[in-house]
Amino acid sequence: MTSPQASARPVSEAEFDQFFEDCRYTAFRLETLQVYDVSYEEEAFRRFLTDGEVITTSSHQEWARIVGGRRRFHRVHVVVEPLTDYLRFECVWAYRTNVKAGEDVNVLPVSEGSWPAGIPRSDYWLFDSEHLVRMNYASDGTMLTPELVTAPDEIVRANVVRDRALHLATPFTEYERHFDTDMRPL
After folding, report:
1. DSSP 24-51
2. Could you list the residue range(s) of the whole structural domain that residue 143 is in?
3. pLDDT digits (tens, 9 = 90+) for 83-107
4. Locate the DUF6879 domain: which residues (predicted)?
5. Mean per-residue pLDDT for 39-43?
6. Does residue 51 fall inside a structural domain?
7. pLDDT, position 5
8. CB of 123 within 8 A of CB of 32?
């Protein structure tokens, strides 16, 4: 097996963005964190926590442009219930609009202390089933440098994980039926 250091290299922000433009058929995102620290969400998250307000930002329009069209975008987020404030926000602020834009958003709910077999506790993007970008985060959810993984066995494993995660997950539109408009359990 190839060492992780030899099979991955850092990806610049511009190169990472180019994967979204260049992907021809599919993009898949596995999310496993319960909190992400994303600078462009700060104001929207603050307002959601303060008064439940959901604001639209330029990132919504940009994501709709990216996922619209002929390609298929899929996402599975493994969420620990009860949902963190951040996950409630993400569901209301991002996932509802992502679904409207055409993204296939899915949720894999688990309880504290359990994790689905065969699903790693690490995030990645997989473009056209062949370009694997490992998403590295600090413990507080801050994005570190993403890495392009080139080892064929790791790319195959990411495809297997994608298929398993999609099989186990629930479509977001079905998942959210169990919550009120602010993603609090009914």
Report:
1. -SEEEEEE--S--B-GGGHHHHHHHHHH
2. 9-178
3. 999 999 999 999 999 999 999 999 9
4. 14-176
5. 91
6. yes
7. 53
8. yes
Residue 71 lies in a domain: yes
pLDDT band at 4 (very low <50, low <70, confident <90, very high): low
Is 4 among the domain residues? no
**Cα Rg for the chain, rounded, in angstroms?**
16
What does the block give as tokens for 176? 């959210």
Instruction: Assess if residue 148 is contained within a domain.
Output: yes
Q: Quick one: which of 164, 185, 169, 177 has its CA closest to 81? A: 185
d(CA 163, CA 157): 10
3-state helix, strand and coil shares in percent for the chain, rounded to the nearest 5:
40, 25, 35
Counted domains in the chain: 1
pLDDT digits (tens, 9 = 90+) for 134-177: 999 999 999 999 999 999 999 999 999 999 999 999 999 999 99
Q: Which is more confidently placed, 23 or 2?
A: 23
Task: Order the strands of the 123-127 sheet from edge to edge.
Answer: 8-10, 147-149, 131-135, 123-127, 26-31, 72-81, 104-111, 170-171
Q: Is 4 helix (H, G, I), strand (E, B) or coil?
A: coil
Q: Is the pTM of this model over 0.90?
A: yes
